[in-house]
Queue: 4 jobs
Job 1
Amino acid sequence: MSEKFSTVEQQASYGVGRQLGEQLAANSFEGLDIPAVQAGLADAFDGKDSAVSMQNLQLAFTEISRRLQQAQEEAAEATIAEGNSFLEDNAKRDGVFVTESGLQYEVLTQGNGDKPTYESTVRTHYHGSFISGDVFDSSVVRGQPAEFPVSGVIAGWTEALQLMNVGSKFKLYVPYHLAYGERGAGASIPPFSTLIFEVELLDIV
């Protein structure tokens, strides 16, 4: 048992604090003052009057919300600009095709099997990364091909798969509007991300 928190009550109390701290860390803002948080927690628990008026609390919350929104908008603009710059330069390279939608792709291996349709289900191996080169997902690394309907994936994949013959391997450069858009995908893919995939079409199932 911990020497600092030796009783069950102390350890449980510490656990409550840990949980609150983890929630705060996941939803923090620049300038968050932990002593002020502790003071507010203690005052509320003890039933004391608020040290800050409700009017000032509301003004503070509104201002912090405005700052967070501004920071998100600035981050989104930077991500979009970085992606657009990358795609603009990439489109000039030999061997890169650009479709009407804005999807870019290279043919790494040209297969000679059938092409899937929008209604097909396919088996693929893929390797997904950001334009920085950091990998966010890979069936190759897992050693397990993925099966899914052509209509059930991001728009860039849906379009590209219908261009591929079984046995083909394409490298896709997917603008954010053909990927996960302005919402991103959970914690792994931020909003407005341009993505790169190497996709091997193994079979139509």
Job 2
Amino acid sequence: MQINLITGISGSGKSVALRAFEDAGYDCVDNLPVTLLESLITTLEGEKSERVAVAIDARRGQSIAELPQILENLRRNHQVRIVFLNADTNTLIQRFSETRRRHPLSGKTQQTQAATLIEAIDKERSLLEPLRNQAHSIDTSNLPAHALRSWIQDLLKDKPQGLTVIFESFGFKKGLPSEADLVFDVRCLPNPHYDKALRPMSGKDQPVREFLEKIPEVVSMENDIIQFIEKWLPHYIADGRSYLTVAIGCTGGQHRSVYLVSCIIAHFLPQKDLAALQINFLSRHRELDSIPAIAI
């Protein structure tokens, strides 16, 4: 059975992600107590279910500490993937303010005073940290709901086992992606932004590609990143990782980084020797994907 655990910081988009799994035909359960997870899987096995997505958060406090061992038990007979959704604290505060919802850990108990929102977020981060370290992490700080759904749909095309390498373009002016394992700064390369004809385009457009591919420094940067990844991939596999996010950033995340991500993943996808090692490749463009969809 394919088991997908959706977890992360409250307000980071777990409900959106769960709906994406549901739309893809998964059996979905929201806010499941940790202690009931194994019983649920046993029940679904009896019903011949093949794919399930379960959302679990830290609202039940310390019981979340039992989850890593439970998942390890489930991995003996099932494919288990953890999807961890995160966002920066300022974004979370804004979202809770807009929705007027209370954080699940901000409630007052008989022993303690009610926690402030920031205290509740910090406590939740601490409780969930062991899960984040072994999960596919997505930073939704600058990501609208439609983009998160699209990223989840891309993830569902990926095989749950093996190493998944994500190449992500981003703009430094909006901050580093929190899920990045490796970061390459390509702001030193010539910028198509200063060409008025190319400014409104992206690194996916042919005129921008033709502009960049003629520059020796761009070609050299592309080759250097590819060689670095090829050299160190076996070491990341040996380390037992499930996910590796390679972030490539330029100033705005529109031209140079998008172009390089597109070129680099095109290099890796056809390689059969890497497929034999169960390495899966995904690409995404944080700033381009954050552009709101136009209603028609």
Job 3
Amino acid sequence: MAEAYIVDALRSPTGKRKGGLSHVHAIDLGAHVLKALVERNVIPGEEYDDVIFGCVDTIGSQAGDIARTAWLAAGLAMNVPGTTVDRQCGSSQQALHFAAQAVMSGTQDVVAVGGVQTMTQIPISSAMLAGQPLGFPDPFSGSKGWKARFGDQPVNQFYAAQRIADHWKLSRHDMEVFALESHRRALAAIAAGHFEREIVALEGVTQDETPRVSTLEKMASLEPVDPTYPSITAAVSSQTCDASAALLVVSEAALKRYKLTPRARVHHISVLADDPIWHLTAPIPATRAALKKAGMGINDIDVVEINEAFASVVMAWQKELDYDPARMNPLGGAIALGHPLGATGARLMTTLLHELERTGGRYGLQTMCEGGGQANVTIIERL
């Protein structure tokens, strides 16, 4: 089978809610990374085969196939098409998978992939809120088929995060210690300049705005998001933010044609689903299945980037896979760096690639929980 290669990966800073990027139109936020991607590489813009972008809640400024509109707003070639993917939190990771599959099939040679989300302007699940409390949208109400299969069991991320914490015996204090370490790692990475190669500054924002100095005492003082879920607070949850990211995926023929140097090879791609009531546990079976299919063990992986939707999600994954915590989200995760929904998958892959290059690691694995109880897994080999 033909191989798919990653030639470049970059991202905007993560702008905190109502922060330095909050006024940037979603199309322009996506255009920013696409323009930088094309300018940094020798492939003429008109010779890209496709643009595949992840985005969730495609309403308002994020509507109208933002992959296509962002490309055009960047001033790039009119002939290049674009398509927008929604696999919930894994949207831009799935965009990378679609690009890799296109290249591996031989139907495309040059694909720009990535994602964008402006959560200040369009809060999470805006398309489904319809007057419901933020964070608890219910698209299942009224579905006879869903009710027949799952009854009245709650389907929301906070319920699932608490259920995971209870099942894996993770105390609120345990999760706060984990969250504090996420911020510590992110702040240390910023201070050391580890993100500088991957970030393309925008609107005067040159580094991630989301990491912050905190203490266990401050975290312990926070009220739960809902009394029903006593261990789940803002401190142990991912941050909403505004961000975009993009990668360049090409075939071997394109490498030769444009005399490109590949930075990584896509070694494995897969997606798996789990119980939607558990909602956030799919990265565990998905990782096991991916490693088995790739003929690898977890200790063959040098760096893991797993989305910190909630501390309990990542901590449960670590317990089940028995992976070295020092090599898991080594520069901090979404608790510190933010979770810009449709852009997160591309942001994680961008950071994963740069961290493999910085440390000399060979294999990196990326996974994340996604709405509907799903999880993508990507394994790359640094070249």
Job 4
Amino acid sequence: MKTIRVMTIFGTRPEAIKMAPLVKELEGRAGVESLCCVTAQHREMLDSVLHIFQLTPQYDLNIMEPRQTLSTITSKCLLGVEQVLQEAKPDLVLVHGDTSTTFSGALAAFYQRVMVGHVEAGLRTYDKYSPFPEEMNRTLVGDIADLHFCPTRANRENLAREGIADGVFITGNTVIDAMTTTVVKDYHFSTRLLNELDYDRKKVILVTCHRRENYGAPMEHIMTALRRLAESHGEVELVYPVHLSPVVREAAEKYLAGHPRIHLIDPLDVEEMHNLMARCYLVMTDSGGLQEEAPAMGKPVLVLRRETERPEAIAAGTVQLAGTEEETVFRLGARLLEEPQAYERMAHAVNPYGDGRACRRIADAIEWKFGLRGEPPEMFGT
């Protein structure tokens, strides 16, 4: 039987969460030799995901350095992946989403004339500086990739408008696959505070805020609004796992520290984050991944950004764009705390991002592309 070598490349925690179940799926395919390369663009947060999913990469570039820049990340990834590809000689490289690792991995594969598959393809804001640098990373990978695995029909339509029609598959989002194994009833947190919160009588708001385009005044406005929500609503417990970025940590300490119901904690591993999300009342975030994960659990999401490349959940009603202006963030947060009907409308909206079978569809598409199966994969949502 013909065997193909498929190398999965990722470097950050969000990528790892979404690619780990795909690696596991590929490992179970008889016609696939699955290889894994991590750049460790984010070291500690990446390692926690590898541990949870019991993944041991064959290649680890370990590029992370203090106060790294986009240029250092991109150049070290490009050179490191080049060496790995020359040694491993895969038939297909899989990259995910929109990180600097994603762009560098795809570009290195292109330089080696290796086929590229793009997982979570076709998301767009059409503003190259928002999210920055992710929007441009994702768009450039779209031009390089040979296979495009789109979470939704809208993502496929974005690619079609750009003249990309071949090798496009609608699969759903692999993060929904990941959550089928990470969310556990009666989960016990390793972070003591999370076990002590009263999730029934308090309204626990899960917050993340870390994106580069929010550095400076936008982050100040967001955090000021968050503090006002805690001060004006006694039922609120605000939990903020603070990103390791020194810029983010300095801002969180300046604007949020010292309030008895605002809890600044260290970053959580994927199991802790998913199980906290399952118990919380509301999510306020500038993260892309949480916009997909929270709706799967019936949790309303306020997006702390000016725009989003994930409009499907906004159309479905489970996500609302709050922007970065203090008054708007405060007003929308207060509305979901004070108006049960507004909350229920968002909590019961249909999640548009997947059914837990995205990895199966991607693996089927790869096998079909390389002649290992006779029929193309089913499309999500059809």
